[in-house]
Amino acid sequence: MSAPPHDLLSWLRELFADWTPNVRALIRVGEDGSLPITADDDEEFLSDLERKGWLLPLPDESAALSNLFETEILDIVHNALDGEDVTIRKGGSRSYPDFEIEGAFFGGGPHAVDIKCARYSGKSVTSTIALYTGNTYFLFPDLPFPGMLRTFGEYDTRIAIIILYNYEPDLLERFSNVQVAIHPVWRIAGKTKPSSTRHYIGSVNKVADLVGGKGAFESEQAFYDYWRSAQRGWPVNPGVAKAKKKLAALKKDKP
Ligand SMILES: [Ca+2]
């Protein structure tokens, strides 16, 4: 008999329970300095490299830093699942989700996992996290949008990994006090759009609510009903007509 499948949400929470990013600096080669380097621990190794002038700080722009955290998260997931009956696919960089997981290890799927980063500002975050784009795949979950691995509606579960950190402009790594919160996306959703020019669905803003999964909705259905309501006034996205054509063509090709 095979083992019962794992629950992806619990599995991710356990994997990242005590995690803090291990990316600490950029390293450059080609500088003067003697090799080999001997060090008793990571801190000594890093300060030795820093003294030699081999280290550059991580980028301080939040999107760039998020990208580094995402790279490490995906690497950890890959390593933890090595040899298991599971397929991990990375999504496009301007698309949803960051990665998907499918296979018997997690009871089928596919499951969508998206990684979001935010900086503390007191008891809140500096800006509302954009959870989904509202007027494309979210509003039309059965349409094949370019860049996506599959339609939004095909996912069994949609999980958000939220990385919260304090921005530290003077540290090489630019962060401190990292907290990770992992929830189904709807559980941390709010009722406001994070941008007046782009068409996103926003999260709640309080750190305690993000960490505790205390969003604005009582149920997943209430979340979808609210954000798919005509009252949200989503503008028509030009990609929708193209995606409809593509779907029609796909249907025609099928015998
Ligand atoms: Ca992301």
What do these coordinates show?
It is a single chain. The chain is an alpha+beta fold and about 260 residues long. It folds into two domains: about 10-20 and about 60-255, DNA mismatch repair MutH/Restriction endonuclease, type II (ECO RV Endonuclease, Chain A, 3-Layer(aba) Sandwich), CATH 3.40.600; about 25-55, no CATH class. The chain has seven helices and ten strands. The protein has helices at about 10-15, 40-50, 60-80, 135-140, 205-210, 220-230, 240-255, and strands at about 25, 55, 85-90, 100-105, 110-120, 125, 130-135, 155-165, 175-185, 200. The strands form three sheets. Strands 3, 4, 5, 6, 8 and 9 form a six-stranded mixed sheet that branches. Strands 1-2 form a two-stranded antiparallel sheet. Strand 8 and strand 9 (about 175-185) form a beta hairpin. It is globular. The relative contact order is 0.14. It binds calcium ion. The site of calcium ion (CA) has 5 residues, from strand 5. Calcium ion binds next to strand 5.
